[in-house]
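Quick one: structure for this chain?
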Amino acid sequence: METVSRITQINTKTFRLIYDRYWEELYRKAYKRLGDQEAAEDIVQNIFVEFWQNREKAAIEKSVGDYLFGALKNKILLHFRTGYRQLEHNRYLGLNALKKDDSLEKRIIYVDLLNQIDTLVKRLPPKSKKVFELKKENYLTNKEIAHQLGISEKTVEYHIKYATDFLKTNCGEWAYLCAMILLPEMLK
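Got it. Here's what it folds into:
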């Protein structure tokens, strides 16, 4: 393990050893949490870029591994926080655009879409509906949902995929995207 005293003297060879040792494991953890290959790769690459750029001032107290996995945790949290903020921003823009638009036709389409999505969500099997609502309304992780409902994470994944596929199949891709932005409003 590389400690504080050695990390300030890191060179490209040492960096390459650290990169080779930790990249794959960091990537696997990121991918498992995000479910998105590109986002996982970007996050892990950014961790190593920042690690290299800040090598002179990095405050590593235990080991390089602990430092890198801590950085991964922080980057994943930031990713979700940014995604949530973007979703809220899009929802806000969408709702405000509808409020500012006096077009009766657009309002009717909007209400019809909400009714269609609401009807479809109600048609989900009870367990899938509950899992879907916890995921989309309460923004819980799969692990939190599994713990709350006393089921496995694999079962949670199944119900989310089932609900997502059901909505996409029955209301189309565009309506599904709108639903993901507007769903918290509908479920209140």
